Amino acid sequence: MSAVAGVGGEERSDYTREESREIRQRSLRLLGSLLRPERGRLIGSALMIVVSTGAQVAGPALIAYGIDAGLPALVAKHSSFVPVGVAFAAYLVCAIAGAVLAARFTVLAARISQAILLDLRTRVYRHAQLLSLEFHETYTSGRIIARQTSDLEAIRELLDSGITGLVRGVLYMVFTAIALVWLDPWSGVVLAASLVPLAFLTRWFQRRSQLAFRATRVYSARLIVHFVETMTGIRAVQAFRKEKRNEREYGQIVEDYRDANARAIKLYGLFDPGLIMIGNITVAVVLLIGGFRVIGGGLAIGALLAVVLYTRRFFDPMEEMATFYNSYQSAAAAAEKISGVLEEEPSVPDPGHPVDLWKASGGVDFDDVRFAYRDDRVVLPDFELHIPPGQTVALVGSTGAGKSTLAKLIARFYDPTVGAVRLDGVDLRDLHPKDLRRAIVMVTQEAYLFSGSVAENIALGKPGASRDEIVAAARAVGADEFIRLLPDGYDTDVNKRGGRVSAGQRQLLSFARAFLADPAVLILDEATASLDIPSERLVQQGLTTLLADRTAIIIAHRLSTVAIADRVLVMEHGRIVEDGTPEELIGGTGRFAALHAAWRDSLV
Amino acid sequence: MLTTRPSRPDGSRDLGTVRTILRLMPFVRPALRSIILGMIAALLAGLVSLAIPLVLQNLVDGPLSTGDGRQVLPAALAVLALGGLEALLIGARRRFVLTPGTHVEAALRNTLYRKLQDLPVAFHDRWQSGQLLSRSMSDLGLIRRWFSFGIVLLIVNVITIVIGFGVLFIWSWQLAIVFAVCSIPIFVYSYIFENKYSVVARRSQDQQGDLATAVEESVHGIRVLKAFGRGRYSLEKYVRQAEQLRGTELDKARAVAGLWLWLLLIPDVAFALCLGGGVWLASQHLMTVGDLFAFFATATVIRFPIESIGFLLSMTFDTRTAIDRLFEVLDESNPITDPDPARTVSHPTGRLLFDDVHFRYQDSPESVPDLIDGVRLELEPGETMALVGLTGSGKTTLTALTTRLYDVTGGAVRIDGVDIRDLTREELRRHIAMAFEDATLFSASVRDNVLLGRPELADPERKADADRVLAEALEIAQAEFVANLPEGSDTKVGEEGLSLSGGQRQRLALARAIAADPAILVLDDPLSALDVDTEARVEAGLRRVLGRTTALVVAHRPSTVQLADRVALLQAGRVTAVGTHSHLLATNEHYRFVISSLDDDRESPDLDRYSDDDEEVSA
Ligand SMILES: Nc1ncnc2c1ncn2[C@@H]1O[C@H](COP(=O)(O)OP(=O)(O)OP(=O)(O)O)[C@@H](O)[C@H]1O
Ligand SMILES: Nc1ncnc2c1ncn2[C@@H]1O[C@H](COP(=O)(O)OP(=O)(O)OP(=O)(O)O)[C@@H](O)[C@H]1O
Ligand SMILES: [Mg+2]
Ligand SMILES: [Mg+2]
């Protein structure tokens, strides 16, 4: 696998030639695959623009005709308005057709580019959701946000201005060139000769701007990473007076980004006048040759006028094309990053041949499992555990022992390095993802609320749940009371990061979520840590009914949980050191007995 | 045509486009000179390109009609020179304008960031972070691009058009009048366009912000989405939002298309009329063929500027919207500011007084009483006070008031008798260090995270001090696991670093508060994620610190309460009782309800008592 596959080497700026080609091709493939579904519309719009541009390009020819044929006819003895009239009418028809079509085309182009953007947005979002936690933990949220915002923005810019500009520009130039050759092949030759320096200039720009735009993508992602981190941690930032230091760090990235942008823009600032220069020189040469030929009688004055106008017009869209090319380079750099994310394979992949499990009974087995987040630090060495259906297991142990890790393996946030975790005898890796998620639900240590109403947040446990179900779930965990006291009850907007409810209330809400989900296996990872004692009691009361016929793994530091457990596991350094019923363990002389006694003493 | 504004749906202050844009003046001033120079260069370039037809006219009327071949070469050379000059001038324009544009953008970005960091937590509660992000990235990018070419091209093109019209008059006033009259509808339509477009432009940018918020939440909440297998569900929601944005963008495109139609049609109609009229005029010898030639050449030159007006106008209105959105944040008044002149407490003893403190959140309905409704509580120097209360009773809120993350809405918080609002925030936050409920670590090494409150120790000369403080804080917080991290205390943690377990994060956050060595420590439920053993050891360590520091410790568990000298009970927005743990336990019913997991009659620790607990609650 190459060093730049996926998001590898994303921040580097020293790609070898092969690497550079590889990621550029990946980016082009992405852009190509985005355009493909829009083929039909693209062709339609191209036709539209053919006619429209053709109509507009006809202008100078008609003027030439008007002057060369119309004027003599008018001043002739039997003066005739016909040629002028024809030129006038034709010009008008062309004008109207050209303008109407161009306007329609604008809308059509927007349709195309919006369809493409929607497609891309959906793809990236879906893929980000598909990627496993392992990826998210190393890639950081800021970066994945950057990919979905500012990088998409770069592509959007290309589509917005670009497509219209490109199709119009190319056709305009092609038509103009055809008209020019048709009017006067010699001038056509001059025009063709001008394409040579043009090609060199473009190649130069392409190379340099590729580098420059890559740098802008890297820095914009860093900006976003820093920005997001500051805004999410604003309380800590302020409380620990990190503002000034942040300003310096952020200011540095802002400057890097500015500099990268300035470099990219400067390149364009050379490219664009270069194009104009080539264009103007060509016009002068055409004029020179044409002028001599008019004198020599080889060319009519009207034709010279048309030829010069055409040559000039040929270069008119150049500026637009250059802009397009510039946005294209920027978008391609962004697409390089996006396609990298899309290329990442989830390390916890969906099964190729999923096994259905319609009705899980809830038996969980760890068979010879070994697990490490990073190769050098094994968290669970050689782990063996069998939980029969319906059992409620309390998992205790000192912090960092690997309890959450165990829970995350059951929820298949990660796959074991060695061995297998099974539900009802089916390896989780083979289980249909839908069945897996329906059967196993985990309430995580961090209670996260999404913006939206309280009801919507609870309903996340079961989309489409009725209001009654939602209220029942809230009531079961004792959240109903405080929810009703909120300004709009269940319809209160929790807004940002659940900042609007207290930590304990947030936990209650995520508890209610799990209640609603009604899984066969429920994992609670310190889901009551921030609750006061009365609320905790209510939750436990709810749990006794909820857990009656399902498997549960409850991780808690407060040993009160043990009361509702059938079995207690004590974990140390990734191993289970004690395993038994609460009575056995408390009655024994092991670690748990000591822990429990200490905890008992702390109670009042 | 740029000065009138449709009233916006949100009814915010309504400035004209020009005046809105002028608000950026302070940021643009350093770049102004170059921007003007750039405009001059662009203008000259425009003039030069207008001069080229002049040469052509002379050529057609002169040498070509007389057949004098000697004039052709100089004329072509003149065209060449002018063309070269045009390219150079355009190059100069870019040189002048582009780099200053990036400086404007950078200055705005830094200002916005500074402002956001300065604004109080209440502001951040109210604003979705995606909206802030989209302002900082895409809106500012838009502004830069507009300054780099939007404004320049707009002004230059308008001037080019005006001058072009003037030149047209020279060639033939009759035709020029035809051309001018034909252009009137463009102005009318531009006006209509502004009204239509501004509304959708605003909507589009807001929807982009919402989309950014959705993205951000989907990433931050990824564990929940995964745990419930709701990736698809959230995707559907996201797609619905993205489709709305698409609708808005199409509305925008339709508005632009409407304008474009006129911008393309009208010059062409004018051309057609001028063609007919021109030929006729020429036939009447009212103008020469050369004049006609030049007339069309000139008209061709101003065609592109006219067409470009459509794009430039929509860009201008987009920018105006971006500026509006930017100033919505920059104009936000900050109620929590440093006083002038500020008082100072040079050697705080750590006496913390809540003096009849009232507080309510900004948007809580009128009908509910203050959340903190007259709290009176005094912490003696060196005393450890536990704060106990039910979930949602306002404990976290009360702790946030001490460092002015929120300001009291009534009464005062005092340190050594000085109202904290009379201190600078910097000083206040040096005297008080906090550990929050959720342990926020930043993407930095363990060392930097723990020493966050001690910027002065970053000095390499004081490395020994820094090491000592770090080691001590880690030791007290029982964060010995740090030694086993791959690079010890230099291991990067936080989002960009190693992920830690919940209890490990919490201990680092605690160590951070301790390392700050404040006069007053405020710890919000600091041991919630620790197991019984570790908790006991941390408590032992904390006791040593708390002996010399005033502390306010929010506690849910009796074990934490035992750290404290006295306990304050928060109930219905007031501190209803203060006393030692055993005293309150004996005398206060509510306290027993909040803190006790045992029945009144303590029985031997066996298991059936849990069911009794349940009954007690349900009773
Ligand atoms: N995502 C991760 N990447 C790398 N290492 C991790 C990750 N999550 C946890 N660890 C490490 O694995 C070990 C076990 O962590 P785990 O979260 O399972 O502990 P825990 O028993 O749940 O502790 P706590 O009670 O503090 O929550 C810890 O040493 C921790 O630092
Ligand atoms: N940012 C906020 N804006 C509006 N209301 C809020 C905000 N934060 C908290 N609240 C409300 O204020 C009340 C008190 O919240 P607070 O976080 O202070 O409680 P707490 O005592 O710390 O509870 P817990 O023990 O659960 O942490 C709650 O009802 C909550 O809904
Ligand atoms: Mg854990
Ligand atoms: Mg709290």
UniProtKB/TrEMBL annotation, chain A:
Residues 43-330 form the ABC transmembrane type-1 domain. It is found in: Cell membrane. The chain crosses the membrane at residues 42-67, 87-107, 165-183, 189-205, 267-288, 294-311. Pfam families: ABC_membrane, ABC_tran. InterPro entries: AAA+_ATPase, ABC1_TM_dom, ABC1_TM_sf, ABC_transporter-like_ATP-bd, ABC_transporter-like_CS, P-loop_NTPase, Type_1_exporter. It is a multi-pass membrane protein. Keywords: ATP-binding, Membrane, Nucleotide-binding, Transmembrane, Transmembrane helix. The keyword Transmembrane applies. The keyword ATP-binding applies. It comes from the Bacteria. Residues 364-598 form the ABC transporter domain. This is ABC transporter.
Automatic annotation (TrEMBL), chain B:
It comes from the Bacteria. The chain crosses the membrane at residues 31-52, 72-92, 146-169, 175-193, 259-281, 293-317. PROSITE patterns: ABC_TM1F, ABC_TRANSPORTER_1, ABC_TRANSPORTER_2. Residues 36-315 form the ABC transmembrane type-1 domain. Residues 352-597 form the ABC transporter domain. It is found in: Cell membrane. Keywords: ATP-binding, Membrane, Nucleotide-binding, Transmembrane, Transmembrane helix. The keyword Ribonucleoprotein does not apply. Gene3D superfamilies: ABC transporter type 1, transmembrane domain (1.20.1560.10), P-loop containing nucleotide triphosphate hydrolases (3.40.50.300). It is a multi-pass membrane protein. The keyword Membrane applies. This is ABC transporter.
